[in-house]
Amino acid sequence: MQKIIIAIDGYSSTGKSTVAKRLAKALGYSYVDTGAMYRAVTYYGLKNGFIGTDKGNLRALIEDLPKIELKFRPNSESGQSDMYLNGENVENAIRTLEVSKYVSKVSTVEAVRRKLVDMQKKMGSEKKGIVMDGRDIGTVVFPNAEFKIFMTASPEKRAQRRYKELLDRGEQVTFEDVLKNVRERDHIDATRKISPLQKAEDAIVFDNSDMGLEEQFERIHDFALRVIGKQ
Ligand code: DC
Known about the structure:
Blueprint: E1 5-10, H1 16-27, E2 30-33, H2 34-47, H3 58-64, E3 70-74, E4 81-85, E5 88-89, H4 97-106, H5 110-126, E6 130-134, H6 137-141, E7 147-152, H7 155-168, H8 175-191, E8 204-207, H9 213-229
Parallel strand pairs: 1-6, 1-7, 2-6, 7-8
Antiparallel strand pairs: 3-4, 4-5
Helix pairs in contact: 1-9, 2-4, 2-5, 4-8, 7-8
Bound molecules: 2'-deoxycytidine-5'-monophosphate (DC).
Residues 12, 34-35, 38-39, 103-104, 107, 134-137, 185, 189 line the site of 2'-deoxycytidine-5'-monophosphate.
């Protein structure tokens, strides 16, 4: 059966990655979490004092971009891929609220987007059979993707999910802070000048505010099989 590219875009904490990972596994496709790439660049900036300090300096981060090497490597324990930044496993370090606070800002930087979009396009041109999630996959990275989904849910529902995730990781956060971060990121992601978050014309809108994981997966999986069957 012919393999396709599946683009899953949408607001933060809509559960894109959970459904995308499961879909990739069921179809025998690879999964690429593009948010992890923006998070890793943000983590690099924080670690080097280019952002998050009084003397924040995005220009220095841009100058350092050629030194930033990102790789996904399989993790045999989780069965997923982990993000490596210059050889260091940063899979956990990039998921903190601290990184979430700055990642939308870093994602507005043209040079950052250029570097990461180029890498993502290359991943898709090397082989099909890929599920990629992010904000601009169906619009910019793979405008010709055969199957596009745009995920959405209410900010409160998304903040609840994220809050639980962060508490499970042992972070000390308040629900109000998480909700504030969700709203701020929505605003920055949807209003930035370069490739703002928007639904591709041919994407299917999927509101999962009141839908469990199982139902989401089944619906999206059925849809994907129908699209693949038509190729
Ligand atoms: O999916 P996520 O929440 O891990 O993504 C983190 C941030 O990265 C998000 O706020 C916006 C940015 N992002 C982006 O601009 N383009 C993408 N393709 C993926 C993520």
